[in-house]
Amino acid sequence: MCGIVGYVGTKKALPIIVKGLEALEYRGYDSAGIAYVENNHIQIIKKEGRIANLQEHLPDSPSTIGIGHTRWATHGEASYQNAHPHQVGKFTIVHNGIIENYQELKKVLEQENYVMKSDTDTEVACALLDYLYREERDIQKTIDKATKLLKGSYAFGILCEDDPESIYAIRCSSPLIVATKEQEQFIASDVPAILNDTNEYFLLDDFDLAVLRKDHVSFYHYGKEIQKEKIIFEGTVESSQKEGFPHFMLKEIYEQPQIVQNTIRFYFDGTKESLDNSLPNLEPYQSIHIVACGSAYHAGLVARTLIEEIVGIPVTCEIASEYRYKKVFYDSHTLVIVISQSGETADTLASLRKANADGIDTLAIVNVVGSSIAREAKQVLYTKAGCEIAVATTKAYTAQLAILSLLTLKLACIHHTLQEDEWLEIKEQLRTLPKEMENLILSKQYEEIAKQIYQQEDIFYLGRRLDYSISLEGALKLKEISYINSVSYPAGELKHGTISLIEDKTPVIGILTDANVMEKTMSNLEETSARGANVFAITTEPINTMKTILIPKKHLLWQSLLTIIPLQLLAYEIAKLRGSDIDKPRNLAKSVTVE
Ligand code: AGP
After folding, report:
1. 590 noted as active-site residue
2. CATH code assigned to 3-239
C-alpha cells in the first residue's frame, strides 16, 4: 500500500528519502515520486513502476528538504499523472488514505477555476489547501481548516512555496510518525522508513499538526502547541515491518478487512454504473473457464459456485498444471479467467498463453502490478492486497474472492438474475462486512481449539458446495504451515471410503453456512462423531450437539469472506503450537515459476 517519507536536515535529502521509500517497498506500490526544494522552488520528479526507476531520474541535488511517496493506486490507474506528489498553486502534498467526499469538493473547487490534472482524491485535497490559503494566508490555519472539510482517512506530508524550509504533516485515521535526530527531522507512514537514521519517533494522533524544520519539530493541535511523548523503537527493521505482529501471516490476516474494503471500493461504489465502468465488458460470454493454482484455484472454485448459482451460466474451474496440457473446449463466447497473487506462476502463465494463442479472450486477476500474467492477459484486474510476504496466502486470497464476487455481481446485472430487493440486500451487507471480518479475527476461541488438536497427525475438513471450496483452502492453510496431513472432502463423499480413516479423537472440522445442505452435512459430521471423531463446526446457526465457532450469516456472495477467517486463524494457532516456521514453511516458495 502507499508509503510516505519526508526529510529536512543538513544532508542531501533525495538519497535519504529514497532509502526510506525502499524500506516501505514491502507494502507494495505501482509508482513513486519525490518533491524537493532547490533554490526556494519546489521540484517534482515522479515515475510509474519501481523506486529504482525513479532513482535513475533523480538529479544529484543539494536540496536538504523533500517529501516522497510510493503509491498503490486507489483513485485512478497507476500513471504519471496520478502518482504523488501532487502540486496545486502554492502547495505540494503526498497522501495516504482515501478522501471520501473528494467528488463533492472537486465540484466546488472547479467552480473556483481549479482544473484537476489527475483522477486522484489527493489532488483535490491539495487544491483545497491552496484555495483556503488564498483567504487565510497562514499555513497552519489553512491545514486545520482543511481537516474540518475533508472526510475520510489521510496522512499528509505538505510543502508550501511560502515556507520552503518546513515540512507540515497531519493525519486522520491513517498512520504517520515524526522522527528526530539532532539536526535532522523525518516524517514517515511506517517505522521501517526511519530506522536507517534513527529509532526515536513521535506518533501523531488524529489532527495533530507537526511542523518540521532542520533543527526543530513543533506539534500543534488546532492551533495550540502541544508536547508529544518520544518513543524509542527497540526492534530490528524486519520486526518493524511486522508492525508488532509475531509473524507476517498474522499481520496479513489482520489486514484483510481493510484490504477487502479497499478492493471492493476501488471497483464498486454501490452503483451498477461503477461495475460497468470499472470491470471489463462481460456481455459477450456464455461460459467461463477459471484457471489457477493452489489458493488461487480455491478462490476460483468459490467463484464457480457463485456464478453458476447467482447468474446461471456454466463455469469450469481447473488446476492450471492440468489445463495447460488437456484438450480444452472453448470458443469466442468463452472468457478464460486466470487468477494469481504473484502473476508469475509458471502453469497459470502457460494456460494463459495457450488461451491467448487460441484467440480466446483472457482476463487476469493479479496482485503484483506489472507481473508477467498481468502484462500478457488481454485484460487485468488488480487485487488491492499490497505486498504479501508470508508464503501462505491470506489477504491476497480474500482480495481475489472480493473481485470474483464483484464479477459475479456484474454478470448478474447483465443476465438480470437479481431482484431489486436482493441487489439492495447485497449492497447493504457490504456496510457491515469489514467489521464482521474484524470481529472474527479478534475472537479468542481459535487458540483454545488449537490446543485440543495440534498434536494430531491427520485432520479432516468437510463441507458441501461453497463450504467445500472454502474447506479446501482451510485444509491447505493448515498443511502448508503446520505440516499436519489435513484433507478436505465433500461431506457426502466420506462414507465412500475415507471414513475408514476416522478413529478415536480424529479432528473433523465441518463447515456449515449453506442452509440448503446444512442438515445433510450435519448428518455426515454425526457419522464421524459416532466413530470417535472430535468434531468442530464452523457454522452460521447455533448447533447444540457440537463444539461450534459461530460466524455471521451473509448473502452467498460475501459469505466466504467470513467463513475463511476462522480457518486461517485455526491453522495459524496450530502451527504456532507446533513451533513451525510460519512465514517460510519448508519446501515452499512464494512464487512458483517452475512447472
Ligand atoms: C497458498 O498459500 C500457496 N502459497 C499457493 O498455493 C499459491 O496460492 C499458489 O502457488 C498460486 O500462486 P499465485 O497465486 O502466485 O499464482
Report:
1. yes
2. 3.60.20.10
